[in-house]
Structure prediction request, 444 residues.
Amino acid sequence: MLRSLAAGLVFTGSGQSPFVEPAWMWSGAVTATSATVLAAFTERLGATPPLLVSTSRDLAGGRQLQGRVTPAPSRSRADRVVVEYRLEGLEPGTEYFAGIEPASGTRLRLRTFGRGPFSFTVAFASCAGGTRPVPMSHVSNSGVFDAIGALDPHLFIHMGDLHYYNINGAARYPDVLLKRFRRGLDRVLSQEHQALFYRRTPIAYVWDDHDYGPDDADSRSSTRDAARRYYGVDVPHYPLPLAPLNDGPIAQAFEVGRVRFLMTDMRSERLPPAGEMLGARQKAWLHAELERAAADRVPLVAWVNPVPWITADGDADGWGRYAAERREIGERITALGLGRRLVMLSGDAHMLAFDDGRHNANGGFVVAQAAPLDRFVRRKGGPYSHEPPQQKNGQFATLQVEDTGTRLTATLQGYRYVGNGKAAPVRETRLRLECTDDRCALTT
Ligand SMILES: [Fe+2]
Prediction:
């Protein structure tokens, strides 16, 4: 078989017609019956190739799915196209394989969630910059991604710093910025370990600063509009209630079994002079979602809040400078009776640390910090009730849920990469919650 690299992943079998392979594929927006697969093609295609979707790895008997091409960002020649495939009518709790060309062996794999009570594992972490071969490199090719994949989570929640390109530039050239975002993503998804991981594990991803704009970027960043446009097109995501036209914060709500996940965008609405972290619209949305979760008597809420919650008032890190907004949200959580059935998943701080709620003065709920995937160590906030004596590179955590329908057990467990594609549990970071009726109790 001839591999034509210059043409960008077009394979030509001898005597056969050429077939096209995607430069990358990843998936998200998984529910019990649906999912989204995005594939990038570097070729100029006459027609978009259909995706074959099957319950068997060889794609035998698979159904053909036509994709939707996202319009090129500019009038200039697009260097690649992203095709969106919407998978609907899937069976709950089922493993699916997808690919363009059965003979190539390149597969995407995902599992739909179960309907109703469902036992599952979600992995979560942030900060994948890469410390090798050069310190402070922008993108990671760490084996930590193999280690997370080996635990086989149903979903990976990436809480930001997907890379460290610190994209910047003049807002008056939006297409240039858009191209920079797309190039950053292309580089992430061309790292062998990440490419394989994202082809076997669906994601729910929200940016932090280094993958949204420059260091500590906020709503005033010149990159804001481009980041939102790029995210809407190139990143598989759940519906964006505040950004129907890729024009707002990327907050999302979704369910895995009976657990309700709320994911907030801590960058693109943030306005430090006004002391606003979420912005008025997103804060109202969060309050409404918390009220809905309380009204629905959801047994467990997981708030994906990428930046540290437990920081001193006025502290430069995390929520410290947004203390009034933090207090307001914490009080709302308490008033709704959610303090004992909410866990917060956070990144940004390059550390692994859990708090059982005792140091959380704003809501009293459990907080789990999990990072860095591949970056130097840096503590932020605290104190935390559960913290290892040393922080290391290659850290992440899992939320493992076992649900009988009347009793839901949630275990938070920190992990650290130990090499050879394997991770070991970090003893100090383990918390277990048993949830029945309207509250969860911590168990040892
Ligand atoms: Fe980071």
Q: What stands out?
A: The first helix runs from residue 144 to 150.
